[in-house]
Backbone:
C-alpha cells in the first residue's frame, strides 16, 4: 500500500502537449508551421517555423537587372504587388536622381490604393473565414473581383502585375480606367455596409475579438510591428504620412490610430483604411495630369556604387528595400525588410494564455502573407 | 437592479446584431440576380478577354506570313527567366553579303512569369500579348513554342 | 378499405391485419419490423442526400453563387455522385489508433440518429412507434450520438480530434439541458409526452400561438440549443474547420466519414422535426379561426406535406444561422448556455406553468 502512495505522480497541471499547426492548415494562410504548446486548450507558447516557401528572392535579385527585379517583388507579398513594385522603382529613381512625371506619380498612388483595398478585402474574407463565417469569404472576393477586373483591363493581369518600371509605368492606363474606378468606388461604398452588418457589428465576432491579443504600443515598437497592426496600438507609423512618396503629400487623408491594440482594434484599422483609401482615390482620380507615362531612362540601368534604402507603406506594413550597389547593372546585395516577418514575430507574445480559437483570430488580425515572410 | 436590466439589454443588443447579420444573408438568398458566378466552359463563345490581357507572348504575322522580328536577341537578354531563346541563321543576300536573320524564336510558356519585359524592350515591336488563356496541355514539351511560323519571313521594308 | 393521404391509420391497420391473418404472430412482427426498417432506411438515405444538396444550394444562394449545377438538372444528382465517390474511396487506417473504437464510432453516431427517427409522426397514423413518452425517448436516444463523437475523437490518436471530441462532449452535455427544458415548457402546456397526442392537441392552434410568449421563447431557445446539439455552425466547435482542421472526424475517410456527415444532417432533420411537431403543430394544417374558406384550402394540403414543409422551414433557418454567423469560442459557448439560456428557460417554465394553472392559454 505504501509503495502505491509513494509512486511518483506526474503533475497533470504542468503537462503540456504540442500540436503542429501547418504547414497544411486551413488558417495559417499558406505554408506556415506553428508549433503550439498547449495545456488543454490554452496556448502556453508558440514557435513559428518559416521557410517552407523560401525561394531565395533576395539572392535571385543579385543576378537580375533592376527592371527584372520588379517581377520578383510581385511574388513576395502577392496581395500588394503594386506597392512592392513601387518600392523598388522609387529606389532606382532615387539612386539615379530621375524625376518621374507627375502623371506617373498620380497613377501609381491611385493604383497603390486600389491594391490596398483589394488586399484588405481579401484580409476581410480570410478573417471572416477564420472566425467561422464562411459567407464573408464570398462577399469579400466578390467585391475584390471588381478591382481585379480593373487591373486586368489596364495592366493585363490580375494578381502579379509588374506594372511599374524604374522611371515610370509599363504602359499608360486604359481609357476606361478612370470611369471604372469611379464606378467601383460607388459600388464598394454600398457593399462595405454589408461587411459591417455581417461581421463588424456581430456580437459573436465582438466577443471573440475584444480584449484578445492586446499589443501595447511599447511592444509594437520593440517587435518592429508596422502597418495597421501597429497603428491599432497607437503607434503612428504610416510611411505615407511621415515620409510621403508619390502624391500622398497632396491628398487629404487621416492616419487612423487605435487605442486598445486588441484584435478588434486591428480589425477596425483595416476597415477604416479601406474608407481612407477610397477617399484618396476619389481625390486623385479626376485630377490625373496629362503627360508621359514614363521618364526617359537609359537602356541599361546601372546604379552608382553605394547603399540605398527606400520604404513604402504596403498593405500590411512598412516594406523596406535596401540595396548595395557596386556600380553594376545588378545589385551587389539586396535586402527586403518585409512587414509580415516582423508582424509574425509578435504572434507568440500575443497568443500566450489564449485559447486555440483566439490564436486563430489573432493570426487572422495580423494578416500575414507567407511568401512575404519567407521570400 | 441595474445589472438586471443590463442583462436583458445585453440579450437585446446581441439578438439585434445577429438579426442584422441574418438580414444581409437573407437578402442575398432572395435576390438570385446578384449571383456573380460565371458558367465558364459554357460561356466560352461569349467570353472575351481584355485587349491587354497577358495570356501568352505571340509574334503577330501578317497575311503574307511575315513578321517584324529581326532576330536581334534583345528580348532574350531582357527576359529574367531564360524563357526566350532566339536562334539565328545566316542567309546569303543577293549582293553576296551574309546576313543574320531569325531561324527560330523559341518561347517556353512554362517558364514565363508574364512580366512583359520582352515586349517592352523589343525595338521593332515584333512581340505582343496574346489573349489565349487555356494553356493546359498533357505534355510539358508542348509548352515550348516556336513563335515564328514555319516558312515565315521578315517584313520587307524593315530588311531594307 | 379506403386509403387516404389525409389519414394513414386505416392503411397501417390494414397492413397489420393482413399480416396477422396470414402469418403466425412472431413472423407477422418480424415482417412488420423489416418493412418499417427498410422504409426508414430509404427515407433516411433520401432525406440525407437531399439535405446535403439543399445545404449546398442554400449556402450558395446566400453567398451569391449558384452552387452545384453540373451533375444532373440543377446539380440535383451531385450528392449521389458524391456518395459514390465516398463509397469508392480508400478507408485509411491509422497506426496506433484504437482499431475497435475507431471502427465502431461512426456506427454509434448513425444508430443514435436512426433510433430517434422511429418515434416521429410524419402524418396522421404514419409513425413507426407511438410511445407515450415519445419526447423523453427522442431526447434520450439523440444524445447517444455524443458517445460516438467522443469515441471517434479519442480513438483517432490525433490531438485535433481529441480537442474536437472534448469540446463536443462539454457542449452537448450542456445543451441537452436547454433542449430538454424548452420541451418541458411545451409538455406542461400539452399535458402529455406522446407525440401523437401533442399533435392532436394542436388541432385548434399550434402551441407556439397557444402558449403566448413563453412558448415563443421556448421555441427560440430550442432552436438555438438544438443547433448547438447537432454541432452545426455557429456552434460547430467540434469540427471547427479553421481551428482543428476537421475536429473529431479528421482521420476518417471514405464511407466512415460519410456516416458522420450523414448523421450530422439527419440529426438536423430530427431536431427540426421535433421543433415542427412540438411547436408548429406537426402535420396539422395552418388554421385561422373564423376564416372557413382559408381553412378548407389548408386542409386540402396533405398532412405529410405540412410536416415536411415545416421541417424544412426550420432546417432552412438553421442553415441560415450557419451561413451567417462566425463561430463561438468554447467558453462563450458555455457562458451562453449556463448564464443565458438556462436561467431564461427555468423562468420560462415557471411562467408557462403559471399560465396553464390559471388557464390563460387558448
Residues:
Amino acid at each position: 500500500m505504501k509503495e502505491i502512495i509513494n509512486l511518483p505522480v506526474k503533475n497533470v497541471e504542468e503537462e503540456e502537449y504540442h500540436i503542429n499547426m501547418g504547414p497544411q492548415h486551413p488558417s495559417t494562410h499558406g505554408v506556415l508551421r506553428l508549433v503550439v504548446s498547449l495545456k488543454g486548450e490554452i496556448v502556453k507558447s508558440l514557435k513559428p517555423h518559416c521557410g517552407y516557401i523560401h525561394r531565395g528572392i533576395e539572392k535571385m535579385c543579385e543576378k537580375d537587372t533592376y527592371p527584372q527585379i520588379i517581377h520578383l517583388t510581385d511574388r513576395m507579398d502577392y496581395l500588394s504587388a503594386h506597392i512592392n513594385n513601387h518600392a523598388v522603382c522609387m529606389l532606382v529613381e532615387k539612386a539615379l536622381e530621375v524625376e518621374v512625371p507627375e502623371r506617373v506619380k498620380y497613377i501609381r498612388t491611385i493604383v497603390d490604393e486600389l491594391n490596398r483595398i483589394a488586399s484588405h478585402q481579401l484580409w476581410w474574407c480570410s478573417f471572416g473565414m477564420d472566425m467561422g463565417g464562411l459567407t464573408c469569404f464570398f462577399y469579400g472576393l466578390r467585391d475584390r473581383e471588381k478591382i481585379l477586373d480593373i487591373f486586368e483591363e489596364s495592366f493585363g493581369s490580375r494578381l502579379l502585375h509588374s506594372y511599374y518600371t524604374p522611371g515610370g509605368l509599363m504602359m499608360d492606363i486604359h481609357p476606361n480606367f478612370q470611369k471604372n474606378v469611379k464606378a467601383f468606388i460607388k459600388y464598394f461604398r454600398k457593399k462595405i455596409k454589408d461587411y459591417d452588418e455581417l461581421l463588424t457589428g456581430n456580437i459573436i465576432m465582438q466577443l471573440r475579438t475584444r480584449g484578445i491579443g492586446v499589443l501595447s504600443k511599447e511592444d509594437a515598437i520593440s517587435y518592429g510591428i508596422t502597418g495597421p497592426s501597429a497603428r491599432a496600438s497607437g503607434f503612428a507609423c504610416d510611411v505615407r504620412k511621415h515620409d510621403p512618396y508619390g502624391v500622398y503629400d497632396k491628398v487629404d487623408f487621416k492616419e487612423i490610430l487605435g487605442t486598445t491594440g486588441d484584435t478588434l482594434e486591428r480589425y477596425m484599422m483595416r476597415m477604416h483604411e479601406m474608407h481612407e483609401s477610397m477617399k484618396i482615390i476619389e481625390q486623385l482620380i479626376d485630377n490625373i495630369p496629362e503627360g508621359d507615362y514614363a521618364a526617359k531612362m537609359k537602356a541599361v540601368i546601372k546604379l552608382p556604387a553605394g547603399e540605398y534604402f527606400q520604404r513604402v507603406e504596403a498593405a500590411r506594413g512598412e516594406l523596406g528595400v535596401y540595396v548595395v550597389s557596386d556600380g553594376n547593372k545588378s545589385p551587389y546585395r539586396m535586402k527586403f525588410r518585409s512587414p509580415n516577418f516582423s508582424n509574425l514575430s509578435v504572434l507568440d507574445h500575443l497568443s500566450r494564455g489564449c485559447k486555440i480559437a483566439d490564436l486563430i483570430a489573432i493570426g487572422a488580425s495580423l494578416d500575414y502573407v507567407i511568401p512575404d515572410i519567407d521570400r | 437592479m441595474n445589472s438586471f436590466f443590463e442583462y436583458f439589454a445585453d440579450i437585446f443588443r446581441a439578438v439585434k446584431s445577429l438579426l442584422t447579420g441574418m438580414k444581409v444573408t437573407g437578402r442575398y438568398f432572395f435576390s438570385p440576380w446578384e449571383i456573380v458566378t460565371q458558367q465558364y466552359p459554357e460561356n466560352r463563345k461569349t467570353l472575351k478577354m481584355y485587349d491587354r490581357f497577358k495570356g501568352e507572348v505571340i509574334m503577330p504575322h501578317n497575311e503574307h506570313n511575315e513578321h517584324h522580328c529581326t532576330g536581334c536577341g534583345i528580348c532574350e537578354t531582357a527576359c529574367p527567366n531564360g524563357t526566350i531563346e532566339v536562334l539565328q541563321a545566316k542567309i546569303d543576300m543577293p549582293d553576296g553579303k551574309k546576313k543574320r536573320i531569325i531561324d527560330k524564336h523559341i518561347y517556353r510558356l512554362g517558364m514565363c512569369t508574364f512580366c512583359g519585359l520582352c515586349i517592352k524592350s523589343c525595338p521593332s515591336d515584333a512581340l505582343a500579348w496574346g489573349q489565349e488563356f487555356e494553356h493546359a496541355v498533357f505534355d510539358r514539351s508542348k509548352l515550348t513554342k516556336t513563335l515564328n511560323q514555319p516558312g515565315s519571313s521578315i517584313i520587307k521594308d524593315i530588311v531594307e | 378499405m379506403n386509403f387516404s393521404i389525409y389519414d394513414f391509420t386505416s392503411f397501417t391497420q390494414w397492413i397489420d391485419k393482413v399480416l396477422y391473418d396470414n402469418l403466425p404472430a412472431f413472423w407477422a412482427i418480424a415482417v412488420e419490423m423489416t418493412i418499417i426498417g427498410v422504409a426508414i432506411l430509404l427515407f433516411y438515405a433520401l432525406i440525407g442526400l437531399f439535405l446535403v444538396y439543399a445545404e449546398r444550394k442554400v449556402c450558395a444562394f446566400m453567398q451569391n453563387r449558384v452552387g452545384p449545377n453540373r451533375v444532373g438538372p440543377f446539380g440535383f444528382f451531385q450528392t449521389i455522385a458524391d456518395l459514390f465517390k465516398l463509397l469508392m474511396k480508400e478507408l485509411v487506417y491509422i497506426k496506433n489508433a484504437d482499431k475497435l473504437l475507431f471502427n465502431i464510432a461512426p456506427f454509434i453516431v448513425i444508430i443514435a440518429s436512426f433510433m430517434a427517427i422511429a418515434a416521429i409522426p410524419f402524418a396522421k397514423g404514419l409513425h413507426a412507434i407511438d410511445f407515450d413518452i415519445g419526447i423523453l425517448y427522442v431526447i434520450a436516444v439523440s444524445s447517444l450520438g455524443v458517445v460516438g463523437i467522443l469515441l471517434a475523437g479519442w480513438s483517432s490518436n490525433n490531438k485535433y480530434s481529441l480537442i474536437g471530441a472534448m469540446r463536443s462532449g462539454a457542449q452537448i452535455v450542456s445543451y441537452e439541458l436547454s433542449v430538454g427544458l424548452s420541451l418541458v415548457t411545451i409538455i406542461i402546456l400539452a399535458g402529455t409526452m406522446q407525440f401523437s397526442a401533442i399533435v392532436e392537441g394542436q388541432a385548434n392552434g399550434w402551441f407556439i400561438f397557444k402558449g403566448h410568449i413563453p412558448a415563443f421563447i421556448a421555441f427560440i431557445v430550442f432552436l438555438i440549443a438544438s443547433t448547438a446539439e447537432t454541432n452545426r455552425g455557429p456552434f460547430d466547435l467540434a469540427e471547427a474547420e479553421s481551428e482543428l482542421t476537421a475536429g473529431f472526424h479528421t482521420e476518417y475517410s471514405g464511407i466512415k466519414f460519410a456516416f458522420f456527415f450523414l448523421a450530422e444532417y439527419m440529426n438536423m432533420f430530427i431536431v427540426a422535426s421535433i421543433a415542427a411537431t412540438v411547436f408548429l403543430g406537426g402535420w396539422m394544417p395552418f388554421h385561422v379561426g373564423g376564416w372557413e374558406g382559408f381553412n378548407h384550402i389548408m386542409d386540402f394540403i396533405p398532412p405529410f406535406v405540412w410536416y415536411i414543409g415545416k421541417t424544412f422551414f426550420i432546417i432552412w433557418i438553421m442553415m441560415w444561422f450557419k451561413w451567417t454567423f462566425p463561430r463561438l469560442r468554447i467558453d462563450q459557448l458555455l457562458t451562453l448556455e449556463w448564464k443565458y439560456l438556462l436561467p431564461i428557460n427555468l423562468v420560462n417554465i415557471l411562467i408557462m406553468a403559471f399560465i396553464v394553472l390559471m388557464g390563460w392559454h387558448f
